[in-house]
Amino acid sequence: LIPKPAAKKTMVATFDAMDQAAQTVSDIIAAQIIPCTLEFLDRTTIHCVEDFAKVGLPLDCEALLLMETDGHPAAVAEEAAKMEDLAKANGAKEVRVAKDDAEATQLATARRSAFSALARLAPTIILEDATVPRSELAHMIRFVAEVAKKHELKIGTFGHMGDGNLHPTFLTDERNEAEIHRVHEAFKEIFDEAIRLGGTITGEHGIGLAKKEFLPKFAGAAQMRVMRELRKALDPKGILNPGKMFD
């Protein structure tokens, strides 16, 4: 077991542009700071979460970063000050420090409520986890917004910025065939861009049936061949989940 950290500081930084929040993340990592929490919410998600959880999130911003650092009190104070400075250097409107554990817990609840909050807005919610190098976060967030506008879709984006893991969440209706087709096309573009940037089509959810068609482009011919050969060696009769991953 790991002992409880001697100190922890929780902060919320708000920004007028998603790029500013993403650049702050890149700068924090470049400064060799490893926060225990570094989470991102876009405007759509912020408003949904506040309406759902009533945690006092600011609504006059385009993006929000939830930042936490823990450890020795002196190290926590130094890292928190550096993160605040970096956020302000990137144009943060405000950096708010939780005044006590209760407020810190309340702010953490905001991020955990993101999916549930978004799920209230549409009959069908499709959540993905395209992940890119942290240096490409600003570009990827901008790209997702452009894709949403291009295909006339509503996307709420939140994610674990410390490891480059974004969750573009499509608010749609599976009964609307035309819209679902646009969602599928949007996903193709988002996954293609993640791959082009040196990222992956899944940071934590896995491939599954939903992303099966994107696996060959991500893995490449050589890896696909090795996986097929391994499958054949372990399951020569093809009786284990036939057609699930390889046709």
Description:
The chain has 247 residues and is an alpha+beta fold. The chain folds into 3 domains: 110 residues, Alpha-Beta Plaits (2-Layer Sandwich); 94 residues, 2-Layer Sandwich (Alpha-Beta Plaits), CATH 3.30.70; 29 residues, no CATH class. It is built from 8 helices and 7 strands. It has a 7-stranded antiparallel beta sheet, with helices on both faces. It is globular, with a radius of gyration of 20 Å. The model has no long low-confidence stretch (mean pLDDT 92).
Number of domains: 3
SSE order, one letter for each helix or strand:
EHEHEHEHHEHEEHH
Shape: globular
Largest sheet: 7 strands, antiparallel
**pLDDT average, as an integer?**
92
Uncertain residue ranges:
none
Q: Helical segment tally?
A: 8
Number of strands: 7
In which order are the strands of the major sheet placed? 4-1-3-2-6-7-5
Strand content: 15-25%
Q: Helical content, roughly? A: 40-55%
Computed over alpha carbons, the radius of gyration is 20 Å
What is the CATH third-level topology name of the largest domain? Alpha-Beta Plaits
The computed structural class is: alpha+beta
By CATH reckoning, the class of the largest domain would read Alpha Beta
Give the CATH architecture of the largest domain: 2-Layer Sandwich
Terminal CA distance reads 44 Å
